[in-house]
Structures are given as C-alpha cells and as structure tokens.
Amino acid sequence: MLNELIQESHARRQRLLAELPLNTLVLMEGAKLRTRHHDVEYPFYQHSNFWYLCPFDEPDALLLLHTIDQQPTSVLFCQEKTPSDTVWTGASTGSAKAREQFLLDNAYANNEQDSIIETLCVKAQHIYYELHHISDKLMEVIKNAQQKKRTHLLSMSDIRPRLHNMRLIKSGIEIACIEQAAKRTSTAFVDLMKHSTQCKSEHQIAARFSYQCARQGSMELAYPSICASGKNACTLHYINNNAPLYSDQILLVDAGCEYMRYASDITRSWVPSGVWTNAQKDIYQLVLTVQKTLVAAVKPGIAHSHLQRIAVEQLTTGLIEIGIINKSLAQAIDDKDYQEYYMHGCSHWLGLDVHDPCPYVDEQGQASELLPGMVLTIEPGLYLRDHPQFGTFGVRIEDDVVVTETGARVLSNAPKSIDELIALCQ
C-alpha cells in the first residue's frame, strides 16, 4: 500500500504546483521529535499535510516544491545519520535513497537547506507555507533572501486551505486505507463485547482495545480511546478511563486505530452483562434508528449541514414520544430543549486526521455539498443525567461512511443491534 500512496503523493505535488502561479515556492516542514522529559522523546508522528504530499516518516525533514524557471520541482531535505547515531536510533533513509523511493526530483541532507532555499527565495515571487508550522530558522532564511531581492517583494500565503480542499475528496487508495482501519477497529470491538465482563475497569477495556489493534498490525491509535462506563459516558471527551466497570450499566467506547496513517473512528454502546433495562433499550433503539436514518440520507448533492437538521428533528421527535420532552416538536426545537440530551454534531470529516480539517463551507460561504469520495462519520447520541425515569447514562453510535455515486457505503462493520450485542455479551 505504501508504494501506491507514494505514487499518489507524487501526483498530488504535480497537481498542487499546476494550480499555483509561476515562480512559486512551497515550504513544508515535517514534524520534529518532541521531548517528553529530560532525554526521553515522544514517539515520532509526521504532520498530516506533509504526509499527504510525501509519506516520508522521519523527523526533521523539509519538503520544498517550486515552479522557479517554469519547471515544477519537488525536493526533500532530510537527516543523514552518522555511524554513531545509527548505533543508538537505527539507520535513516538518507537523501539518495529518499529521492528514488519517494519519486522526488532532488533530495539533499539538511545541512544544505539554507543555501538552496535562500537562492530559490531570491528568484521566487510567491511563497506558500503552513501557518503555525514554520520555524524561526526557516523564517530567517526567507528574511535574508527578501533583503537580497531588488524587485518583486515576496508574497507569503498559508498553503493549508488549498491542501485541506484537496484532502476533502479521497482517492480509492485512501478509502481502502480508511476501510482497513475501520475493519481492524470493528474486529477489536467484537473482542471487547465478548470479553467486557472479564474486565473490571475502564482502563482494562482501553488496554484490550489497544492490544487487539496492535495484534492486527495497527500500532497507532487515531486518538485517545474513550471507555466510559455509566455516568462517565455523559462526558463527551472522557479519556480518564480509570473508573470501575459496571456490568449492568451501558459502556460507551469511542475508539479507532490507524492504517497507513489513515484514521478510523467508531463508537459502540452496550451493556456488558447482556441484560438491558427497558430504559436502556428505549434510548439505545432511538439513537440506532436515527443513526440508520442519517446513513440512508447520505448521498451526493445534499449539504453536510442537512444531516444535523435531520438528527435534531428525529432525536427530538423520539424524546417527545418516550415522554422526556413534553412540548410540540416545533416548540422543542425552537427552545433547543434537545440540547440537554444531544449537544454535539452528528458528523465530521475523516481521513489522515480523525477530525480531518477539510472545509464545511464552500468559497461562497455555503454549506459544502456531499460528493463521491468524501468520507465522514455518522454519530448521533443521547446523554441523560439524573433523569427521574431513565437515570444517568449515555449512548452514542458511530460509523465511518464514504459517499458513493448513488448514496453511501458504511466502512465499519461492528455489530450494533441490541440482539447482536446481547448475543456477543452472553
């Protein structure tokens, strides 16, 4: 799969440069190692936009794209480790191998950055970079070049909006990566459901999920797992995962692994003992019905924001029918009564980031319409706190969905009907 991603990243670089003015320079700094404490570092994790243009997975790299002299060119600067460095941290790819492997026009050691970049900056008329992801050192190089220019002041612009627009429509390879991550996550969920009564605390659930993903080859999780038993599910981004696990209360697990850096994001809610109360069933079935309605609504041409309107209307209708809200539908929505029980969006983009930073509005400020190749989550939920009839618990059901030519295809396949959940838990 990496070779296919390398081919695609080469095509993306060509496409990006073709859309930019001549005499343009694009500077993309890769991620650096970050210190955890003293002389221990966090595991390295490459910036998503950098990976999108070049899946080179080593720290301290810099990707330079330019159209100077009307010639689209891709250049990588990277580490050249000494024999001593290699003893401690292993070999690096090196510039010669990186040039060939990642289909680049040139590659150099990092110590050649300043002179090459400054020379190109002097010739350039436009510079694009990632806002908030540019080092003081690189800015100093650009400043020095600016002082040497005698004509044409440099214009500097943020490249992120262009990249985020490109990332909105996924290729077939990208969808396959997300689907593989979703399948591995779904497999881990099935294991959790079968063995959740053997776990005595939320952290054991989290540990089991991580293990099951790693066992399948996915060492990275897409985000910190949410493993929330009982009332903890009412905290939307609960990541403490340190409370006892109650077998008769709903357990909400929101978790996902990565495959080739592409994220999955799945949520399931179930009673570990397999013995559900009527209140738990009523709320769960309402959320499940709305989730299925939302998935069925996904198709090309509808606005992404329309999904939230459906979620609000359907959840509010259900809350009225089971007696939690005692108003007409129109009045309850106008008064936003549903927000006591449902306070988040029902969908977000998914890709290299679990919350892919792609736009939700177009250039005219209108809500983005769904198009084939877009990947999004569908995740309605309900959260009750100290309700006199239903008690305190939360339910969220989330799947990963790709927009097709005619509708939608669900990429995740973890069980979610009450009957399926009961059968797995018993």
Summed up, what is this model?
This protein is of the alpha+beta class and 426 residues long. The chain has helices spanning 2-19, 48-53, 83-89, 95-101, 113-123, 136-148, 160-166, 172-195, 202-215, 278-297, 304-321, 329-334, 418-425, and strands spanning 24-29, 35-37, 40-41, 62-66, 73-78, 106-109, 126-129, 155-158, 226-229, 251-255, 258-259, 262-263, 266-270, 375-378, 381-387, 391-396, 399-403, 408-410.
* Approximate strand percentage: 15-25%
Count of DSSP H/I helices: 13
Instruction: Assign an overall shape.
Output: globular
Radius of gyration: 25 Å
Strand order of the largest sheet: 6-5-4-1-7-8
Helix content: 25-40%
Stretches where pLDDT is under 50 for at least 5 consecutive residues are none
Structural class: alpha+beta
What is the assembly state of the chains in this entry? single chain
Task: Report how far apart the termini are.
Answer: 38 Å
Main sheet summary: 6 strands, mixed
Record field, number of beta strands: 18
Mean pLDDT across the residues is 95
Structure description:
By secondary structure, the protein is α+β, with helices and mostly antiparallel strands. It has 13 helices and 18 strands. It has helices at 2-19, 48-53, 83-89, 95-101, 113-123, 136-148, 160-166, 172-195, 202-215, 278-297, 304-321, 329-334, 418-425; strands at residues 24-29, 35-37, 40-41, 62-66, 73-78, 106-109, 126-129, 155-158, 226-229, 251-255, 258-259, 262-263, 266-270, 375-378, 381-387, 391-396, 399-403, 408-410. The strands form six sheets. It has a six-stranded mixed β-sheet with strand order 6-5-4-1-7-8, with helices on both faces. The protein has a three-stranded antiparallel β-sheet with strand order 9-10-13. Strands 14-17-18 form a three-stranded antiparallel β-sheet, with helices on both faces. A hairpin with a 6-residue loop joins β4 (62-66) and β5. α5 crosses α6 (136-148), α8 (172-195) packs across α9 and α10 packs antiparallel against α11. The longest helix has 24 residues, at 172-195. The radius of gyration is 25 Å and the shape is globular. The two termini are 38 Å apart. The mean pLDDT is 95.
